[in-house]
Amino acid sequence: xxxPRISLSAVVWLLVGAAYFLIPxxxxxxxxxxxxxxxxxxxxSAYGVILHDPQxxxxxxxxxxxxxxxxxxGLLLFVxxxxxxxxxxxxxxxxxxxIALVPFVxxxxxxVVGLLKFQxxxxxxxxxxxxxxxxxxxxxxxxxxxxxxxxxxxxxxRAIDVHTLTEASQNLGASWRTTLSRVILPNIRVAALSGAxxxxxxxxxxxxxxxxxxxxxxxxxxxxxxxxKAYPAAAVSLMSFAITWAAMLAILLAGRKRGGGMRLAGGR
Length: 268
Fold this sequence. Notes:
It contains 14 helices and no strands.
């Protein structure tokens, strides 16, 4: 079989894109390994400063926990919703898709101010509720992650025959809960994982809502380091970037491991 030829222009644009992406990272890395006393290369003291800072571990654990809670609530809300829309109300798909675009249009600063006013003045929620990041921030992050989870799930549901799988499962005597958990969910697991990992990347990097709500999360810690320490700021920025790209790499690996064919309950 004759191999397809790669055009010279494609190679040039690939190299230009790689340089545009990698050169700033290389510059940040070289800056991060400079010695804080002499300014010479090479020292990993900046990374040591970050790793030995208790606030680094406190904030990164908090952001990671918030991300897991956002993923759990988001999937519990949106998987049944998208499934029902595809199964019973396909004409509403454009409407739901339009609603999912709203978080892209509304700035986070408007979102957090609106949520605070709604929860405080309309729902009359107590201050102990508003002062807990697990309760207040997760609600905002679920809204922020809505488009990413929805469009990932929507692509997964469009890739399978929802009606055939549902009818076959119910003909075998399965309930709606069994059908969703043991038939539908295994067939959209890659889409659900993609939405989950995108949500992880978003929450781990969200700054506006957290800082306006006066919560100390990992992004606010990065901002504090950027304002106070030069070399550790470059180090923690690279570490944050690595976390985000690890999530993206996990999506790629999950997609490659996807098995072919649709499954019924029990994997048959």
